[in-house]
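Good morning,

Attaching, inline, the backbone tokens for the sequence recovery test we're adding to the shared suite. The designed sequence is right after.
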């Protein structure tokens, strides 16, 4: 190795980097990109990732420091994954060190060892007793594995197994289940091979639509993106299962990304009851050792299926075969802070890079994906009906201007609720607002209870007897009277807590389960409550957004949407899309089994075109019409956006930065680019900080990218940037 070797290292720090270091020693093998390196940074040391090895540096010799230590024998990140990260860092204008950090479990980021206890498989006495000749006819791969294992006293490593057959994983599982092989494996919290003697569910016969979708999807060899638009309950998961099975048979891994709230034990159980192969589950709630273990099984190829929330898009996939993004419209697939990436968009990029198919599934696809399907960049596959007898629910509107609600409930709604409960159905009541009431109002002077730190009202929580701000979390005791005039205070509007009370009074004979962030803080509480509903111990189910996704309530026959009007006149151009998605998603919880479902929506605006379109033509009719409106107004997906946010405890500091940013943008932005703002964020003051923003809109991504590269470099130099906290959000999904 050359003494002058220069290591280019990215370090998780809010600086663009990468940085050059000299190799720690002149002995040993040349370091390889993807390995972790301990490097000095300022007065301390950090763990970085080696991204390139060079022979020279532009950093002057006297300032070039030695790296301290190479931590890994083999690279942790392969070349392709590194290319993805490099691309993402450039595209999202985010420091590469932080982007690379997103791809590793925390313990590896902190420099802990991968504990490379290599797993191997040893033959048992039972395995030696097997008659190989007979087995060879029935299961040739198993026979070859046993033969080779019998001749290898140290056991077979996965590379040796893979040499026998790319589909080794399945055969090994069978042999382990039969007690012919045992695995010698890692120490901590072993998730290795699944327990033996598990009865797998048999796959149902596919419906005609499923069959067609599976046939098309399974014929894909290369990169392609398919939008699987299937109404809720149409059996998208079954389609995924078949595609995953095909990949497993070919010895390849499948990555499934799901929204945060969708990754329930229920979903994982569904996978486990269909696949005996190893499944790695990756989400933020895991313990560090489980997380590392999941990462390792993905990395060494032993996990055939990797299910995870958005950061799993960076999971190692040495034998990648397929990427699925379920509920691809869900906003939790976009990270909203720090490294603001879209896991869906990166999944598509990764699929192209790896040359493998990508499936985007949803009952309510994002307008971005629909536009891509309209222009045939994505292939569109649809599952328009539910399998078996399950019918889509019938949707009706209740006019709140005609029917005065009491405690949020109108007489017609109460009547249908009785009807469903009396015929042994379950009722789901949806209200996306927790607490007792959105605020308290003085009956004398009309003053509302405001948060002192935010431009928001304090929500009245009756059980805890506090006023709580849902934006900054601050709380205070409930005042007895109005602070201004001593008048009497009264709760205005509905929250789930108040509705729970009202429903309890109206339906005293029916047990109610409420599911929102307040009732499910305790670990395992949400599962406990859901089980009560599934076991039919409770017939009323009340909740927020938490209920809208991923759950299957086979006996819910009525869904009641208490207030559809929150989203009708939103300020964000995506308000209508969001509202329609949540209405359809919640409605989809009804009538999933053999019982027909009904949906009732209370609204002050039953004639609103969005609602009537949704009721008459369903999501796709609505979406195509709304997409047309987007085209006319030039919003995404017909343009692209980047949002520069700035905040400071002093209002002028935030705007001084944004004003300068706008001045800097002028000479850099050519045709096809426009700036909107600076303007206050929709909620300008939050947690005592003033927030402003500047929106950049461009006709195409190329122009946007060229502009952002130049602009960000200038922004980083602005002295005003030190007096305000700022961030750049490329393809923002929330405009505040
Ligand atoms: P989605 O993911 O589209 O909302 P699911 O995959 O959860 O739908 O399927 C809804 C229900 O239909 C599940 O209970 C599933 O077991 C069942 N199902 C799916 N496909 C079939 C089929 N071909 N035949 C019978 N039942 C099916
Ligand atoms: Zn607040």
């Amino acid at each position: 190795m050359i003494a002058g070797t220069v290591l280019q290292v990215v370090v998780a720090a809010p600086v663009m980097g990468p940085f050059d270091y000299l190799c720690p020693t002149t002995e040993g093998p040349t370091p390889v990109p993807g390995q972790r390196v301990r490097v000095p940074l300022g007065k301390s040391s950090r763990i970085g990732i080696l991204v390139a090895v060079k022979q020279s540096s532009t950093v002057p010799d006297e300032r070039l420091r030695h790296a301290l230590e190479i931590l890994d024998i083999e690279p942790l990140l392969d070349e392709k994954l590194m290319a993805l990260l490099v691309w993402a860092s450039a595209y999202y204008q985010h420091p590469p060190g932080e982007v690379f950090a997103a791809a590793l479990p925390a313990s590896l980021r902190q420099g802990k060892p991968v504990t490379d206890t290599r797993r191997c498989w040893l033959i048992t006495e039972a395995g030696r007793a097997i008659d190989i000749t007979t087995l060879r006819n029935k299961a040739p791969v198993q026979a070859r594995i046993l033969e080779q294992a019998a001749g290898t006293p140290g056991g077979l490593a996965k590379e040796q197994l893979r040499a026998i057959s790319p589909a080794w994983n399945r055969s090994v599982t069978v042999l382990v289940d039969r007690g012919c092989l045992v695995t010698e494996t890692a120490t901590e919290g072993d998730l290795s091979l699944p327990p033996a003697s598990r009865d797998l569910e048999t796959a149902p016969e596919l419906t005609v639509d499923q069959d067609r979708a599976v046939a098309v999807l399974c014929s894909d060899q290369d990169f392609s993106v398919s939008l699987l638009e299937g109404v809720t309950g149409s059996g998208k998961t079954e389609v995924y299962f078949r595609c995953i099975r095909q990949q497993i048979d070919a010895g390849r891994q499948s990555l499934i990304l799901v929204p945060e709230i969708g990754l329930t034990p229920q979903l994982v159980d569904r996978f486990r009851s269909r696949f005996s192969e190893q499944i790695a589950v990756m989400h933020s709630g895991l313990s560090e050792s489980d997380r590392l273990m999941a990462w390792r099984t993905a990395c060494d190829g032993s996990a055939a299926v990797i299910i995870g929330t958005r950061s799993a898009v960076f999971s190692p996939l040495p034998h990648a075969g397929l990427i699925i993004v379920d509920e691809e419209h869900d906003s939790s697939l976009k990270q909203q802070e720090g490294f603001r990436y879209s896991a869906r968009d990166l999944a598509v990029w990764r699929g192209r890079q790896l040359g493998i198919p990508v499936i985007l599934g949803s009952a309510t696809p994002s307008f971005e994906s629909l536009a891509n399907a309209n222009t045939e960049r994505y292939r569109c596959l649809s599952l328009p009906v539910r399998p078996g007898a399950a019918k889509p629910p019938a949707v009706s509107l209740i006019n709140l201007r005609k029917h005065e609600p009491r405690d949020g409930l109108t007489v017609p709604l109460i009547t249908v609720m009785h009807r469903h409960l009396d015929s042994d159905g379950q009722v789901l009541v949806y209200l996306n607002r927790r607490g007792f009431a959105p605020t308290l109002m003085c009956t004398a002077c009309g003053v509302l209870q405001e948060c002192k730190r935010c431009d928001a009202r304090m929500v009245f929580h009756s059980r805890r007897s506090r006023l709580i701000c849902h934006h900054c979390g601050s709380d205070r005791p409930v005042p007895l009277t109005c602070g201004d005039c001593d008048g009497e205070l009264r709760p205005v509007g509905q929250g789930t807590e108040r509705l729970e009370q009202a429903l309890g009074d109206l339906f005293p004979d029916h047990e109610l389960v409420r599911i929102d962030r307040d009732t499910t803080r305790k670990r395992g509480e949400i599962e406990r409550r859901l089980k009560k509903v599934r076991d039919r111990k409770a017939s009323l189910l009340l909740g927020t957004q938490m209920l809208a996704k991923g759950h299957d309530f086979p006996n819910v026959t009525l869904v009641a949407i208490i207030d559809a009007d929150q989203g009708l006149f939103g300020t964000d151009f995506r308000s209508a899309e969001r509202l329609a998605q949540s209405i359809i998603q919640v409605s989809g919880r009804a009538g999933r089994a053999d019982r027909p479902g009904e949906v009732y929506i209370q609204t002050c605006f039953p004639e609103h075109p969005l609602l009537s379109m949704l009721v008459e033509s369903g999501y796709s009719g609505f979406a195509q019409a709304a997409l047309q409106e987007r085209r006319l107004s030039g919003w995404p997906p017909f343009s692209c956006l980047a949002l520069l946010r700035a905040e400071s405890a002093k209002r002028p500091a935030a705007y001084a930065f944004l004003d300068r940013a706008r001045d800097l943008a002028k000479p850099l932005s050519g045709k096809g680019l426009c700036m909107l703002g600076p303007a206050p964020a929709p909620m300008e003051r939050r947690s005592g900080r003033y927030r402003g923003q500047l929106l950049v809109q461009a006709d195409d991504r190329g122009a946007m990218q060229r502009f952002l590269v130049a602009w960000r470099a200038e922004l980083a130099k602005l002295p005003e940037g030190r007096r305000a906290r700022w961030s750049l959000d490329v393809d923002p999904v929330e405009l505040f």
